[in-house]
Every structure is written in C-alpha cells, then in structure tokens.
Design goal:
Blueprint: E1 7-10, H1 16-25, E2 30-33, H2 37-44, E3 49-50, H3 54-58, E4 63-66, H4 71-80, H5 83-86, E5 92-95, H6 100-114, E6 119-122, E7 125-126, H7 129-134, E8 137-141, H8 148-158, E9 159-164, H9 170-198, H10 203-210, H11 218-228, H12 238-250, H13 258-275, H14 282-288
Parallel strand pairs: 1-2, 1-4, 2-3, 4-5, 5-6, 8-9
Antiparallel strand pairs: 7-8
Length: 289
C-alpha cells in the first residue's frame, strides 16, 4: 500500500524537510512545496517533484502533509493559497504542525464546511530534527478510525511509533502536554547547570556527574552533550518551544499553572535578547551570562 501512496509535503523547515526526504528515500511519489523555493529544489534533486504553489502540489496527492510554523500559516496555505480546494476527493490531510487546540478546531470546522469529502487527521509529532532525520518520530495521531490503515504505511516511514489517541483534536492536546514536559526538562537542565556555576562548580564537572544518572533520559542526555560542547544550533528552536508553551497556556484558564507561566516569561526574556533562533538549550547560556 505504501508504494501506491502519492504524498504532498507543504513546509520544508527543520521538520518538514527531513520528513519529505525520508518519503522520497522510501520510494513514495512525493510532491513538495515551500515558501522559500530553494529548500524545495534541494529535495527535488533527490527525486521529489517540486510545485510552484500549494494547490499544484496537492492535485494528484493521496495524502497531504502540512508542517509549518503556526495555525495562521496552515490556514493561509489551505485557503488563501488554494490547497484545500485543490485536494482530490477522498484525500487525507495529515496536519502535523503544532498549532494548538483552537487552531485545530478552526481547521476541523473549515474542512467540515468546505470539504467534507476530505479526511482530516490531526497528527503532530513528538521529536525534534534528529529523530525526524532518522525516521524515529512518535506520531500523535487523531482522527477517523477508517483512515488508519490507509495512512499507517506512510507514518511507518516517518516515525518509530504511531499513537492513535482519539478524535481530531486529541493529537494536538497530547502534543501540548508532551511539549510542556519537554519544556520543564529543558529548563531543569539549564537551571541546574547555572546553579552549579553560581555555586562555584566547573560546568564539565556538573555534566560528568549527570552521566549515567537515572534522572537523565536519552533526550536530556543528548541535550547535555550539546551543552557541554556549547553547541546551541537549533534542533528545537527556543522561539518554537516558547510558542508551544504559550499554546498550552492558552488552552487553560489564566493563572492555572503559575510555574509554566514563569517559565514562559523567562524564555520570552531570552528570546528578546535575540536568542530565539538557537536551540532551547541556549537558556543555559543565558542563565550563566
């Protein structure tokens, strides 16, 4: 079934680009579009068909993947740039961007009103650029049960596991929960290392003490290694991490989670210093300065 799926990938940033590359490598006919065409042409050199517009990208697709920054970008592609109108009858729209609860509800209404013949899946991913490149994402999928068999071969190319979590909207909710946990882990690493500095400890001594600790999961271990090398190149950019925390807080009543509010305020301060494009671990450097 996977060989017969024709896939359009719209958005070729830090996540969409490796996802599209893996689809091409798996031999799936892949159409790509990106706002900056240079990235699309690079994937075109590896076998993807490059489209000039989102509408052109999806006309022959069985599955359309959107992987862009936020809900406004998704809606612009879907409506202003003609993607939704151009999708074939019965096609699957796998919306894999992190756009929050309200954004996903807007898309569900849009599809229901304008294209009820299109199957919408709300399927954000857990994992950053490294797992995306390795095809080891965890896909937090939600939507109609009847779409599972059709989409599973494609999701198997992109991820190591697909968790089906309920109807459309459940995937986005789980993603916010997941990313808030990541935020606290990242902040914990940053504050622990900065505390070590404040107590007069050498940074490397602190990092060495963390090695093999039962408290340090593989994701945190990889982040600690990069911190030790002062490598803050973006795997999960701080500006996007902050966006995800803000989306989580938007979905609940004000002041319900004061610690998360405080974390968001601190990260906003780091972003305002011009560090939003660096990895989320750059908070460590900001706290040590």
């Amino acid at each position: 079934m996977a060989e017969r799926l024709r896939v359009a990938v719209l958005g070729l940033g830090g996540m969409g680009r490796p996802m599209a590359t893996n689809l091409v490598r798996a031999g799936l006919p892949t159409f790509v579009w990106n706002r900056s065409p240079e990235r699309a042409r690079e994937i075109g050199e590896h076998g993807a068909e490059v489209a000039d517009t989102p509408a052109d990208a999806v006309r022959r697709a069985d599955v359309v993947i959107t992987m862009v920054t936020d809900a406004d970008a998704v809606l612009s592609i879907a409506t202003d740039q003609g993607m939704l109108a151009a999708m074939p009858q019965g096609a699957i729209w796998a919306q894999m961007s992190t756009i929050g609860v309200a954004g996903t509800e807007r898309l569900a209404r849009l599809v229901s009103e304008q294209r009820p013949d299109v199957v919408l899946l709300d399927a954000p991913v857990a994992g950053s650029r490294g797992p995306a490149e390795q095809g080891k994402l965890v896909i937090l999928a939600s939507g109609p049960d009847e779409a599972r068999d059709r989409i599973s071969p494609l999701f198997d190319v992109l991820g190591q596991r697909t968790a089906w979590v309920g109807p459309v909207g459940a995937g986005s909710r789980i993603k916010l929960v997941n990313n808030l946990l990541l935020a606290f882990i990242a902040e914990g690493l940053a504050e622990s290392i900065a505390l070590g500095q404040s107590l007069g400890l050498d940074r490397q001594a602190v990092l060495n003490a963390f090695q093999g600790s039962p408290l340090v999961a593989p994701w945190a271990a990889e982040k600690l290694q990069r911190i030790g090398q002062s490598d803050y190149s973006p795997q999960y950019p701080l500006s996007l991490a902050l966006k995800d925390v803000d989306l989580a807080l938007e979905g609940v009543e004000a002041d319900r989670f004061p610690v998360a509010d405080s974390l968001a305020a601190q990260w906003r301060w780091v972003v305002e210093r011009g560090l939003g494009g660096e990895d989320v671990t750059v908070v460590t450097r900001a706290l040590e300065d």
